[in-house]
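call fold(seq) -> tokens
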Amino acid sequence: MYNFPEDVFLFRGLSHTERASLLAEAPPPEHFEKGSIIYSAERFRRAIGVVLRGEVLILRDAAVLNRLEAGAVFGAAALYGQDTRYVTEVRAATAAELRFFDESLLNDWMRRDFRVAENYIGFLSDRIRFLNQRIAAFTAGNAEDRLLVHLRQHSDENGLVTLPHGMSELSRMLDIGRTSLYRSLDTLAADGKIRRVGKTIYINH
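ret:
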């Protein structure tokens, strides 16, 4: 049995006792072996999944869209809708321990504590903003423009860029070959739009 991650969005603002009370009503964790399909287009459950241990991959057409570690959540797209197909594939990248909260349980939690509903609405709002940013990146034009939009989205107030999954994942996310990706970085640097210090990237404002 693994401790439930402290930062899962549903329980923000709740005390440890309040969170424990809700979790006591949830099904126990489930174990998945490395390579197991957790969700597929045809086989999924209308539930949010929380990673307790290990890592899972989010894929579409065999391309890795994201890698989730302990504390990460997936499955929101399966809730409160009528679709009979799931939008991506979720696969265990390592042996993984997961816990699932289905629609019925979430509805009960939201009725009992409106903070859970507020947290879920906030999560969906963040996802909408993220998807709008992704659309902007993919419609920005050439490879350099798309890359620059993405880098700006992941930079802090000082222009420092954080790429959580490295260049290989960035290449897949933007649908740009690795050679083209590095060429685009060189072009942006030569144009004075970014500055590279080793593996660190800064946006020039």
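The beta strands are 30-32, 37-39, 47-53, 56-60, 63-68, 73-74, 89-92, 96-102, 194-197, 200-203.
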